[in-house]
Automatic annotation (TrEMBL):
Coiled coil feature spans: 213-267
Keyword Lipid metabolism: yes
Protein name as annotated: Patatin family protein
Residue ranges of every copy of the PNPLA domain listed in the record: 13-184
Pfam families with a match to the protein in the record: DUF6363, Patatin
Species assigned in the record: Photobacterium indicum
An individual GO BP term: lipid catabolic process
Gene3D superfamilies: Cytosolic phospholipase A2 catalytic domain (3.40.1090.10)
Molecular functions (GO terms): hydrolase activity
Length: 368
């Protein structure tokens, strides 16, 4: 057994979100629980990663798996047709009610608080809606439900305001999809990251592609040229004026970025929150009409903040500081599931893959 991994004062655990793809992390952590492996004294999760952290700290093997498989796939949680046609948003409140004390799969606060003794902390990353910076709140407190809603509250899909400490909060993935910087700021030199995207030759591989700002604008213009055909095809031609207004704001924002950061590149990942380009443009069209953000400059700021922070995280993961021992646990391949609207057999496949990767990791560190 590797004694290095038994010193819990030295290790932090960071868990990425990814919506339903978080079921991979559920598999890894369930394998950790099965093997009684927990050398960590700091746990931080973003979005679905925060719920995985909560179930791990509460020692509830299978709860995260159950939540994703049976509740995030339910029509009550999210139905794309109802979202587009009837303006029915994601019902995050309904889903998280399931883990309340009187819910179908309640979190075990007693066990979690027993685990979180002797200086241990379990935190969720949330984004301040005003400054779009990352903040970190304890998961197991009286405001735990609002904290989980905040870290999971995707702006384009969840409309309810989340307010506490006199601030409004949105999805933690906007500011820190993988909150490794916070772990380092807190003095941790040994950081274990569970991510939902594979790594090949040390580089993240997923649906993301590097685009310069000029390339982003080119993509925007290409869509605008074909907008009439697209809107007729999906039956939303009457929303054309909303999209034109949105595209003008996007152009203004891109021009501003070009002036201030001529050589900056942003890693754009259309599937980080959503499903694919066709669904993305449907949602963009709808948001111009019904979202609380109204596709304003505020929403553009949120999107660009997400892209910029994603690049900063990738920089840390690719070239960590010299004093950091970074260990990444990642799938061997692109996951079969998607952030939303995944098939159950794909979710089962990714969960089992997570268990296999978790077992292999424990073998590699000499724990089993």
């Amino acid at each position: 057994m590797n004694q290095h991994f038994l010193d819990g004062n030295n290790f932090s655990l960071i868990v990425q979100g990814g919506g339903q793809r978080g079921i991979f992390a559920s598999g890894v952590l369930d394998k950790f629980l099965e093997r009684n492996f927990d050398p960590f004294s700091l746990y931080i999760g973003t979005s679905a990663g925060a719920l995985n952290v909560a179930t791990y700290v509460a020692r509830q093997q299978g709860l995260g798996f159950n939540f994703v498989l049976n509740y995030t796939t339910h029509d009550r949680f999210f139905n794309l047709n109802k979202f587009i046609r009837k303006k029915q948003p994601m019902d995050l409140d309904w889903a998280l009610n399931m883990v309340q004390q009187d819910g179908a799969i309640p979190l075990d606060f007693t066990t979690a608080n027993n685990v979180l003794q002797n200086g241990k902390h379990a935190l969720a990353c949330v984004t301040n809606k005003s400054d779009l910076q990352d903040y970190y709140y304890p998961i197991f407190t009286d405001q735990w439900l609002n904290t989980l809603k905040a870290t999971c509250g995707i702006p384009m899909l969840y409309y309810n305001d989340i307010t506490f400490d006199n601030q409004q909060w949105i999805d933690g993935s906007v500011s820190a999809a993988i909150p490794v910087h916070e772990s380092h700021r807190r003095g941790f030199k040994n950081i274990v990251v569970i991510r939902t995207t594979p790594i090949i030759n040390g580089i993240e591989t997923n649906e993301a592609t590097d685009f310069s700002i000029n390339q982003v604008e080119k993509k925007r213009k290409n869509f605008e040229v074909n907008m009439d055909h697209y809107l007729k095809r999906i039956g939303m031609f009457k929303e054309k004026h909303h999209l034109i207004h949105f595209h003008q704001k996007l152009s203004d924002k891109l021009n501003e970025l070009k002036q201030n950061h001529e050589h900056t590149k942003y890693k754009l990942n259309n599937q980080r929150w959503l499903m694919d380009d066709d669904h993305l443009y449907r949602l963009v069209t709808l948001q111009a009409k019904v979202s609380q953000f109204g596709m304003s400059s505020e929403m553009l700021d949120i999107m660009i903040a997400h892209y910029k922070n994603h690049n900063a995280v990738e920089g840390f993961l690719t070239n960590p500081p010299d004093d950091v021992n970074l260990i990444q646990i990642a799938p061997d391949r692109s996951l079969s599931s998607r952030p939303l609207l995944s098939k159950k057999d794909h979710l089962l496949e990714d969960y089992e893959h997570g268990q296999m990767v978790g077992e292999r990791f424990l073998q590699s560190v000499g724990y089993i």
